[in-house]
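Colleagues,

For the teaching module next term, I've prepared a clean inverse folding example: a structure given as tokens, and then the sequence designed for it. I'd like students to try predicting residues themselves before seeing the answer, so please don't circulate the second half yet.
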């Protein structure tokens, strides 16, 4: 008996400390109607499970204790009892129906992507996300059409690889370009992928959708509170699977419109410097026309094709429109800058510092020409 009360005490203590941290153990605070439905469904089913657990184990332990041979209990004999069989069929049936009804309702709501205000295509890349604001139906059509951005991890490398460096507050959950959406609008997300299967997951929105190469899947959310929401790729997609977070910034509609306006003008304004570069190229190339001293194809074939030709080492493959569309949307000046200075796994000037900026820019133009 002493042993038994000790066990009881231990489990009671465990339970209490469990309750103390319960606020951190639950799901993330739901921020959309769907997420709230999922949350209450989760709680409902959890409690049904708790009740079943307590009832079944309570009965079992009661029977084990009270109906022992040592206390002289004689086993009851009721083989082939129709009553018992009916009862143990009906009770689970009722429980399952009680669970299936609200679950089905929620799933149907989750899948209802009709009548969106705004449509954004999210493409998974190894290892970043591309967001394209596509021309769709709904009240916000035209506001942000054509905006395309690449969203990559912004956590500094030394936080990741140097254990002595203090990790930031949003370690591995921060990006350079956030997805910006208006609040109180139905946002439809189309998911797809460029290489392997990724998954678009924002827990607070109750959204988790696989992004599969060659397929388009969709999901939706409607955020009610302005703020920053963080998620992650939720499909093991390679060595940097943990390094492709999703950050959504929800803002007032006016702010969204202003953002879209600014982003669009930025995208339009960008070709300007590239035109200048091209102008410089033609003057240097002068009469020789195509085969001037700055031969983009030669630089490309000699150096860049090593990675970009086959699309190895994470390099976007030349000619792969899916891989290039969001990059090209950044504008030629940004692309040239990235090629000259290097970005992530892309070495500066393709690894040959002896190249001139103009040579690299010409190689980029050649590559982009093949990938449009
Ligand atoms: C060692 C392999 C390698 C070589 C060689 C290489 N690249 Fe890259 N390149 C990459 C990788 C990897 C990326 C993708 C970087 C990322 O966005 O994460 C990339 C991306 C790019 C991009 C897109 C940048 C962006 O903003 O999305 C351009 C443009 C580019 N490379 C141009 C070139 C040019 C021009 C050369 C030749 C002078 C070249 N690359 C040689 C690996 C290479
Ligand atoms: Cu992924």
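(Answer key — instructors only)
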């Amino acid at each position: 008996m002493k042993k038994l009360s000790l066990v009881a005490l231990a489990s009671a203590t465990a339970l209490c400390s469990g309750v103390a941290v319960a606020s951190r153990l639950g799901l993330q605070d739901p921020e959309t109607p769907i997420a709230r439905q999922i949350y209450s469904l989760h709680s409902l089913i959890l409690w049904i499970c708790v009740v079943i657990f307590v009832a079944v184990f309570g009965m079992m332990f009661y029977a084990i204790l009270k109906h022992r041979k040592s206390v002289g209990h004689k086993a009851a004999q009721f083989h082939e009892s129709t009553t018992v069989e009916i009862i143990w069929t009906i009770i689970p049936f009722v429980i399952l129906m009680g669970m299936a009804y609200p679950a089905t309702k929620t799933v149907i709501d989750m899948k209802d992507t009709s009548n969106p205000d705004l449509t954004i295509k999210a493409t998974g890349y190894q290892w970043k996300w591309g967001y394209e604001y596509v021309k769709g139906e709904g009240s916000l059509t035209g506001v942000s059409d054509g905006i395309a951005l690449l969203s990559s991890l912004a956590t500094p490398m030394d936080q990741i690889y140097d254990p002595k460096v203090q990790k930031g507050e949003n370690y591995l959950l921060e990006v350079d370009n956030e997805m910006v959406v208006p609040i109180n609008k139905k946002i439809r997300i189309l998911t797809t992928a460029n290489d392997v299967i990724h998954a678009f997951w924002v827990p607070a929105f109750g959204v988790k959708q696989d992004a599969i190469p060659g397929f388009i899947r969709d999901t939706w959310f409607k955020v009610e509170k302005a703020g920053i929401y963080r998620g992650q790729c939720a499909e093991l997609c390679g060595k940097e699977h943990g390094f492709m977070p999703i950050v959504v910034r929800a803002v007032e509609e006016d702010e969204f419109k202003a953002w879209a306006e600014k982003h669009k003008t930025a995208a339009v304004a960008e070709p300007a410097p590239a035109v200048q570069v091209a102008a410089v190229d033609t003057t240097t190339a002068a009469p020789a026309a195509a085969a001037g001293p700055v031969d983009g194809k030669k630089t490309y074939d000699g150096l860049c094709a090593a990675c970009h030709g086959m699309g190895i080492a994470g390099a976007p493959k030349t000619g792969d429109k899916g891989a290039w569309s969001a990059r090209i949307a950044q504008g030629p000046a940004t692309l040239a800058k990235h090629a000259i200075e290097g970005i992530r796994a892309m070495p500066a000037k393709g690894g040959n510092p002896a190249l001139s900026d103009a040579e690299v820019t010409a190689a980029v133009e050649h590559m982009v020409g093949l990938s449009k």
